């Protein structure tokens, strides 16, 4: 990007960016649009070829970078993702839905037909899969960016890295490091909150502890999380019930291992108690 | 009676204001303990009213609470999670920024002048920790080569003014007496205060301290005031929250690399890194490079790093310490054993922060004690080498 050698022959072709939506709330796409300070630089660095949330014009594939938001939860989505994989050179799943199945994946423990009967007047028109799944359950993804929603700065780092052909710098350690670097009071130690920061991957900049709230794990499990030990502390010292612990595990990334395994374990303990 | 009674002075309570004003007049940014969301934090204070006041802390493994009391004392609490390290060695610091001009990278203007900081209310263990970091960053030997971040530590450190507060009410996780670092500040301060109800017994520790003291409405303390201060400090020595038996510990830890206790603590440890972040002697950092989208500039930022991350021990074949067991063992043995080899002192000053701020209450004194109580047969390939050093240590000649 630095060299001016191609100026004579007109502006160099910009890499094409495509942004797709599957089953999701649009929050991750909004994170991209919220990058107000950098948005102008971004449209200079890449050509927005497909981004229905932002513009109507669609350029034909292939695309250099594809960002996929949302989980796969309908038969159509399960089909469509394969064409997208063929259309994009570098495919990135963004956000909790695309990387873990998201909140929708709570259906994976329940009967989704029951939900549709309860919610819709004519449930026979609803075509849905029994499970909501991350993109990687259906096709190969080149990178996954966690978070509900993704962190705008991480998104920018990802795009910059892909454009430069280097590895994106995305830490895999706990939220606690970011929390302590910011000098925030620890809500777990000083307030007895069930903070998931010590088992959750960093990236948000300790957003919730910064608002005096416990981390609820929206960036999913960190590298080698010791959930069992933290759960024991919550149950013994904070007197949280197995049901509470199960619900802590089963939220935005409930279907992602090893949150899933621990959530299931607390469910078994809960049922054993009844 | 204390030998240096001739130099002890007395500062009436109301004149704490004058001390803060005198420091500010000399161009210092005064940093002191303030209450923030139920925790003592070291932040800028403009007046005595900003200081946390009339409250005490309750500290235990994985537990911290601040409670209001009727004592109306300023320094009835001890340490919160952060301390001078945050200012001398910032958690996040820009090291260098380059931008592209034509076909080459050009370095942006150098970092601004180092700040002039006055720390009000530092404890003895903190001063000991700063002395440890001085050795790490080369602040006490100007000939050692230093990188940018260390240079910034040394400059900030040299400018800093320390008003120590001697601890009269140690916290539930404190063990400075075991580590020989407190609860009374013996060195490294400019002024030291011992709080009584009516005011502070003041000791002067440096020429700079004397200059500031000259501007304060000090009077000579009464015999009773001096005696009360001495009694309070003697009592504090006997009310430590914890103790650590340090005799031979360095060698015991060196020899017990395969002790079963490491497996037990690994089951509890979250590898979250909180202990390293709050430890006043932990000095590890990493650098992160970031580039602008258009490739026109790059920035290198230094961040506090922890030996509890997987990435930390990354070498060419991949991370060396794969297990939480390996990481906890490395941390504890570094603090209490291998630090001696590296820097000629203990890496732990007994402040107790790692115990209080561990989300699952892992206690360094308990872990070290468990190993010392049931040492396994020597199973380290280096055991032979350690034998001799153990004897030297016992004889009081601690090898560097
Ligand atoms: S508040 Fe949560 S994220 Fe922050 S240090 Fe405490 S446990 Fe970790
Ligand atoms: S000892 Fe405690 S604070 Fe340190 S990494 Fe383990 S769980 Fe975290
Ligand atoms: S190891 Fe723990 S007790 Fe020792 S200096 Fe560090 S934080 Fe304080
Ligand atoms: S460890 Fe000692 S010097 Fe440090 S705060 Fe506790 S009592 Fe004071």
Structure description:
The complex is a heterodimer of chains A (274) and B (400). Chain A has 274 residues and is α/β, with parallel strands linked by helices. Helices cover 39% and strands 10% of the residues of chain A. Chain A is built from 12 helices and 5 strands. Chain B is of the alpha+beta class and 400 residues long. Chain B has helices spanning 16-25, 85-88, 124-137, 148-159, 176-179, 207-213, 223-237, 249-255, 261-268, 274-278, 324-343, 353-356, 364-373, 383-394, and strands at 9-12, 29-36, 39-44, 55-60, 63-68, 92-101, 104-107, 117-122, 161-165, 191-195, 199-204, 285-291, 297-304, 314-315, 318-319. In chain B, the strands form 4 sheets. Chain B has a 7-stranded mixed beta sheet, with helices on both faces. Mean pLDDT of chain B is 90; it is low at 1-5 and 383-400. The structure holds iron/sulfur cluster (4 copies). One iron/sulfur cluster (SF4) binds at residues 175-176, 179-180, 184, 186-188, 195, 197-198, 206, 209, 215 of chain A.
Task: Give the SSE map.
The complex is a heterodimer of chains A (about 270) and B (about 400).
Chain A: E1 16-21, H1 27-33, H2 36-45, E2 47-51, E3 63-69, H3 75-87, E4 88-94, H4 95-100, H5 112-119, E5 143-145, H6 152-164, H7 175-181, H8 187-191, H9 207-210, H10 227-236, H11 242-249, H12 259-273
Parallel strand pairs in A: 1-2, 1-3, 3-4, 4-5
Chain B: E1 9-12, H1 16-25, E2 29-36, E3 39-44, E4 55-60, E5 63-68, H2 85-88, E6 92-101, E7 104-107, E8 117-122, H3 124-137, H4 148-159, E9 161-165, H5 176-179, E10 191-195, E11 199-204, H6 207-213, H7 223-237, H8 249-255, H9 261-268, H10 274-278, E12 285-291, E13 297-304, E14 314-315, E15 318-319, H11 324-343, H12 353-356, H13 364-373, H14 383-394
Parallel strand pairs in B: 2-8, 8-9, 9-10
Antiparallel strand pairs in B: 1-11, 2-3, 4-5, 6-7, 6-13, 10-11, 12-13, 14-15
Bound molecules: iron/sulfur cluster (4 copies).
The site of one iron/sulfur cluster (SF4) has 15 residues of chain B, from helix 3.
């Amino acid at each position: 990007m630095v060299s001016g050698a191609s100026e004579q022959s007109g502006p160099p072709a910009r890499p094409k960016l495509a942004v797709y939506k599957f089953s999701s709330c649009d929050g991750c796409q909004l994170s991209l649009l919220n990058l107000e300070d950098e948005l102008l630089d971004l449209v200079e660095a890449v050509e927005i070829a497909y981004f229905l949330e932002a513009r109507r014009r669609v350029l034909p594939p292939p695309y250099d970078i594809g960002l996929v938001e949302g989980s796969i939860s309908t038969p159509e989505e399960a089909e469509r993702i394969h064409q997208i994989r063929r259309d994009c050179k570098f495919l990135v799943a963004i956000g909790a839905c695309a990387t873990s199945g998201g909140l929708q994946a709570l259906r994976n423990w329940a009967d989704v037909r029951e939900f549709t009967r309860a919610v819709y007047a004519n449930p026979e028109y609803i075509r849905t899969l029994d499970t909501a799944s991350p993109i990687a359950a259906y096709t190969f993804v080149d990178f996954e960016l966690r978070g509900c929603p993704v962190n705008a700065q991480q998104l920018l780092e990802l795009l910059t890295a892909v454009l430069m052909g280097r590895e994106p710098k995305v830490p895999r350690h706990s939220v606690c490091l970011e929390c302590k670097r910011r000098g925030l009071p620890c809500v777990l130690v000083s307030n007895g909150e069930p903070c998931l920061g010590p088992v959750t991957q960093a990236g948000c900049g300790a957003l919730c502890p910064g608002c005096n709230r416990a981390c609820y794990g929206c960036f999913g499990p960190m590298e080698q999380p010791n959930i069992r030990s933290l759960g024991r502390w919550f149950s013994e010292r904070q007197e949280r019930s197995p049901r509470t612990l199960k619900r802590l595990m089963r939220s935005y990334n409930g279907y992602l291992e090893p949150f899933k395994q621990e959530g299931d374990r607390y469910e078994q303990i809960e049922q054993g108690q009844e | 009676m204390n030998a240096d009674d001739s130099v002890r002075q007395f500062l009436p309570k109301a004149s704490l204001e004058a001390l803060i004003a005198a420091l500010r007049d000399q161009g210092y940014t005064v940093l002191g303990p303030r209450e923030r969301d139920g925790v003592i934090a070291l932040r800028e204070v403009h007046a005595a009213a900003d200081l946390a006041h009339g409250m005490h802390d309750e500290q235990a493994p994985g537990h911290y609470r601040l409670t209001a009391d009727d004592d109306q004392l300023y320094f009835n609490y001890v340490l919160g999670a952060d301390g001078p390290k945050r200012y001398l060695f910032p958690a996040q610091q820009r090291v260098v920024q380059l931008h592209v001009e034509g076909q080459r990278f050009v370095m942006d203007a150098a970092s601004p002048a180092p700040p002039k900081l006055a720390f009000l209310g530092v404890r003895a263990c903190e001063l000991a920790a700063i002395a440890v970091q001085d050795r790490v960053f080369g602040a006490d030997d100007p000939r050692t080569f230093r990188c940018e971040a260390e240079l910034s530590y040394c400059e900030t450190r040299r400018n800093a003014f320390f008003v120590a507060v001697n601890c009269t009410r140690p916290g539930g996780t404190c063990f400075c007496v075991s580590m020989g670092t407190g609860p009374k500040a013996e060195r490294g301060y400019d002024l030291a205060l011992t709080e009584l109800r009516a005011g502070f017994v003041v000791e002067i520790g440096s020429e700079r301290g004397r200059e500031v003291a000259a501007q304060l409405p000090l009077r000579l303390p009464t015999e009773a005031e001096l005696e009360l201060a001495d009694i309070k400090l003697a009592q504090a020595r006997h009310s430590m929250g914890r103790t650590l038996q340090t005799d031979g510990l360095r060698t015991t830890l060196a020899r017990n690399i395969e002790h079963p206790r490491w497996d037990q603590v690994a089951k509890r440890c979250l590898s979250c890194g909180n202990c390293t972040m709050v430890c006043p002697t932990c000095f590890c950092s990493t650098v992160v490079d970031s580039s602008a989208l258009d490739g026109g500039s790059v920035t290198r930022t230094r961040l506090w790093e922890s030996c509890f991350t997987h990435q930390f021990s990354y070498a060419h074949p991949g991370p060396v310490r794969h297990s939480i067991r390996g990481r906890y063992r490395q941390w504890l043995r570094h603090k209490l054993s291998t630090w001696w080899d590296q820097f000629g002192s203990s890496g732990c000053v007994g402040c107790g922060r790692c115990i209080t701020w561990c989300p699952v209450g892992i206690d360094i004194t308990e872990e070290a004690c468990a190993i010392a109580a049931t040492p396994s047969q020597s199973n380290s390939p280096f055991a032979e080498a350690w034998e001799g050093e153990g004897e030297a240590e016992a004889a009081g000649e601690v090898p560097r």
